[in-house]
Design goal:
With about 120 residues, the chain is mostly beta strands. A hairpin with a 2-residue loop joins strand 1 and strand 2.
């Protein structure tokens, strides 16, 4: 996407932030990972994401192609610039899954996605 993928020193007070941008209005930037979800445990994805002060973007989380979350990331939805989103992955327990994180275009104006953290937690 615009300006490619970059690792920023700081964004909204957080260090070491990954910045992405959709490739086009119709083509998302997608971060993908295959992972084995532990059997017999409650597992969740915890994301810390932010927006560009001049724009917003749509975050879509997919597990094995299934839409698990769909959220606007904007000044209205982020506290202090950041939003923490938790997505339950327990339905995939005992399987290997493909996790896709989409930085999707909304209105094609400063739709940079900022990723402050992505972690998988099993309890």
């Amino acid at each position: 996407g615009v300006d490619g993928i970059a690792l920023l020193n700081n964004h909204f007070g957080r260090d070491s932030v990954l910045r992405t941008h959709p490739v086009s209005r119709d083509s998302n930037c997608v971060l993908s990972q295959k992972l084995k979800v532990p059997d017999g445990k409650k597992t969740k994805l915890i994301l810390d994401v932010a927006h560009d002060p001049r724009g917003d973007w749509r975050l879509v989380v997919r597990g094995n192609g299934e839409r698990l979350a769909d959220e606007m990331i904007s000044k209205e939805t982020c506290k202090d610039g950041w939003r923490t989103l938790t997505v339950d992955l327990s339905k995939f327990a005992g399987t290997e899954m493909k996790l896709d994180l989409h930085n999707q275009a909304n209105d094609w104006s400063y739709e940079f996605g900022y990723w402050g953290g992505a972690r998988i937690v099993s309890e």
